[in-house]
């Protein structure tokens, strides 16, 4: 075990975490920095509940060791503000997507990456980008509607 200090930029704020270099980023965000999002889901980078963005790319934080973090981290809390929510956050509420809320990180953070690259994605492109994220509440059609609504808001 090698304990080190890691300087992280999370949601535009510089933070320092002292931890084992193999500790997953998810644990640092939740346990050391007290963030409520991202969530722990499967712990195997398969469900998407732990998704954050690093320099704009959606990544699964449960399997990313702190030693592998290189770039600015954005969580769901950093995507928008209560005064100015991201269009995806607004669209999720408008389309009444959230149910249990466990999976929202994966869907929104991954869709945000897609919409930064493609302001007018087709249904097929949205589905492809969101492949692999799990929702046990079966809100998939609402999620698709919300991404399309957000895309139209961003154009």
Describe the secondary structure blueprint for this structure:
Blueprint lengths: L2 E8 L2 E8 L4 H8 L18 E4 L2 E4 L12 E2 L1 H4 L7 H8 L9 H14 L5 H7 L10 H15 L1
Antiparallel strand pairs: 1-2, 3-4, 3-5
Helix pairs in contact: 3-6, 4-6
Write up this protein:
- By secondary structure, the chain is α+β, with helices and mostly antiparallel strands.
- It folds into two domains: 73 residues, Ubiquitin-like (UB roll); 76 residues, DNA polymerase, domain 1, CATH 1.10.150.120.
- 36% of the residues lie in helices and 17% in strands.
- The protein is built from six helices and five strands; from the N terminus they run E-E-H-E-E-E-H-H-H-H-H.
- It has a three-stranded antiparallel beta sheet with strand order 4-3-5. A two-stranded antiparallel sheet has the order 1-2.
- A hairpin with a 2-residue loop joins strand 3 and strand 4.
- Helix 3 packs across helix 6 and helix 4 runs parallel beside helix 6.
- The longest helix has 15 residues.
- The chain starts with a strand and ends with a helix.
- The model has no long low-confidence stretch (mean pLDDT 95).
